[in-house]
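Notes from hallway chat w/ T.B., transcribed later so I don't forget. T.B. wanted the structure written out for a chain they're using in a teaching module, and asked if we could keep both sequence and structure tokens in one place. Agreed to drop them here.
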Amino acid sequence: MAPLRIGYVPEHFSTPLHFAQTHFSLSAHLIPFPSGTGHMVTSLRSGDIDVAVGLTEGWIAALASSSSPTPNAGAHEHDFKIVGTYVESPLCWAISTGRDRDDVSGIDDLRGKRMGVSRVGSGSYVMGFVLADQQGWLQQSPSSSSFDGGDSAQAPFDVKPLQNFENLRKAVNDGTADFFMWEYFTSKRYYGASRLHPIKQVGEIYTPWSSWKIVAQSGLAGTGELNEVFEKVNAGIKYFGEHQEEAVRYISQELDYEEGDAREWLKTVRFAEDVRGVKRSVVEKTVGVLRKAGVVRREGWAMEEGVGFVKEEG
């Protein structure tokens, strides 16, 4: 049997996956997706990967907005389902623009501007509309901020899909985009630095939910293959918690973060002790916020359609 193909974002949050493979023989092919969750949604639906670790809002936005279950599947099945919780803590999204952009200095300057995103449907896209909702910038009708981009004349931003973090940094410096959102510590490396396409921070927003979930092709839910992945990832997370110095070395030497930033990030992150399942309250809250923000517009979506394992509350 071929190893499972697991998609992940090659940033500091992936460290326990690295430990699961190097120290606990996780038998899987880890496939990096630097462009993020939106790209993994596409790859799951095309069958190019079997399992993926990505952002809560990206998975739920895709599942709750989908109107087409997997061909030949039951009426309440989708091509992939949320099966686990990877990170329990929220994610801090930094809002950034070009280092020398004097026209963008704070959140109040963002309304109606060009928002760079990796892909439509990605976390960087979804959180832009959560921000707009928090700021009161959305029109009364949800159709003004549809998941597919909406009417740019009415939407709070002109959305510019730019694929990856490097392109986003380049765009806010050359004027293709005015701002973008990306994880704080990944962005921080480029603030006022002499690196390629430097940026500056103009704001931040936290996810109002736990930040990273595990998804899998629907047919994998409940299988021994997936249970083995859970066991190995749990072991990698436990090792991560007990070997913080090794984690700092890996993050700073292999993932190109400053050692001090790696240590600061460790103070903020809380991984799940057992990655199996997702809490019903987390899904319901996320769907509610995304529906209010106009990202999810499909009525009548049942959680059972997109969730493979429900974790007990507490």
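Follow-up for T.B.: Residues 224-242 form the longest helix (19 residues). Might be a good example for the class.
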